[in-house]
Amino acid sequence: MQNDLVAALDIGGTKIAGALVDGQGRLLLRCQRPTPAQEDAETVMAAVTAVLGELAASPLWARATAVGIGSAGPVDAAAGTVSPVNVPGWRDFPLVPRVARATGGRPVTLVGDGVAMAAAEHWRGAARGCRNALCLVVSTGVGGGLVLDGRLRAGPTGNAGHIGHISVDLDGEPCPCGGRGCVERIASGPSIARRALADGWRPGPDGDASAAAVAASARAGDPVAAASYERAARALAAGIAATATLVEIETAVVGGGVAGAGEVLFAPLRRLLRSYATLSFVRRLTVVPALTGTDAGLIGAAAAASLGGRSETAAVAGGPS
C-alpha cells in the first residue's frame, strides 16, 4: 500500500477540510470550505461534496483507495451516521454512505474528530511512542481520543475519549448536547469569548471578538481576558484529571485553535491540574501541546482509515481489516 493514498475529511463546526494523504502522513493536496453549520442537512452535505470534488479533480485521485473521516461528534461509526452538536441540521445523518457514493464506492472509515486528532498525535505528534494518553482538540468544540496500552481506542461507536461532554459544573449552563456544565460549554473558543464579553471585556478597534483576540488581551495584561482563560483551564483540568483517574493516562496532549493561546492557556492548565490530579497514580500526569497543528484532523482521519495498515489504528470502529 506504499503507493496508495487516503482521501481524508476533517469536518467541524467552522470548516470542512479535505486532503490526499500518503503513507508518511504528508498532505499532498489540501482544500477546504466553510461549514454552513446553521443550514439544513443537504446544504452542509453539499459543502462536503464540493471538497471531495476538488480532491477528485486532481490526477492524484486515482491513487486514493480509501476515505477517512474525522467529524465533530457524536458520531456512530457502526451506523455510519453523525450528529455534531454544532451542526444542528445533521442529526443521525448518514454521512458514510453519502461519502461512499460520492467517492465511487471507496471504503469509508468514520471516527470522532477527537479520535482523529489522537490518531494523528500518536502517529506523527506529541503522543508518538506514548502508551497511555488523552489527546484533546479544543476549538469550536472540545473533543478527545484515547491511546491505551499503545493502541488507539475509539470505542464501539468511534467516540471514546469525548471529554468535551463530561460535566464539570453540575449547576452550570445547559449545553446544546442536552447536558449541563460540560467542558465544551466552558472551554471551547466561542465559550471563552462569550464569557469574556459577558464579564466586561471589549474587542479592539478591529472588532475581533474571537478567543484568539481574548488571548491577545490576556497576554497584554487584561485581567478579564485572563480570567476567561483561567476558567477554561479549570474546566479542562477537571476533565483531564477525571479521565486520568479513570483510565490511568500518563500524558494529555492539547491541540486545536484554543491551544494556540500558548501559555495563556497552558500555564493555568498545568497549575490547576495539580489541584485536581491528586491521587498517587495520576500525580505525574503531564500536559503538552499538540504537534500536528491544524492538519491533525486530516492526518488522523487518514490514520484511522488504516493508511499503510498501521497496527495502532486497527481498533478504530468501522476501519478496514
Number of domains: 2
Q: Over all CA atoms, what is the radius of gyration?
A: 19 Å
Q: Which CATH architecture of the largest domain would you pick?
A: 2-Layer Sandwich
- What fraction of the residues are assigned to beta strands by DSSP? 15-25%
- CATH superfamily placement of the largest domain: ATPase, nucleotide binding domain
**What value does the average pLDDT take?**
91
CATH topology of the largest domain: Nucleotidyltransferase, domain 5
Name the shape in a single word.
Answer: globular
CATH class of the largest domain: Alpha Beta
Poorly predicted segments: 307-321
- Largest sheet composition: 5 strands, mixed
Spatial sequence of strands, sheet with the most strands: 3-2-1-4-7
What class do helices, strands and sheet pairing give?
A: alpha/beta
The residue fraction in helices comes out at 25-40%
The count of helical stretches stands at: 9
Number of strands: 12
Secondary-structure element string: EEEHEEEHEHEEEHHHHEHEH
Q: Measure the end-to-end span.
A: 14 Å
Family: Belongs to the ROK (NagC/XylR) family.
InterPro entries: ATPase_NBD, ROK, ROK_cs
Protein name: ROK family protein
Pfam families: ROK (PF00480)
Detail the topology: elements first, then pairings.
Elements (H helix, E strand, L loop, with lengths): L4 E7 L3 E7 L5 E8 L6 H16 L7 E8 L3 E2 L4 E2 L12 H8 L5 E5 H12 L8 E6 L3 E7 L2 E3 L29 H5 L1 H10 L12 H9 L3 H25 L3 E5 L7 H14 L9 E4 L6 H9 L17
Parallel strand pairs: 1-4, 4-7, 8-11, 11-12
Antiparallel strand pairs: 1-2, 2-3, 5-6, 8-9, 9-10
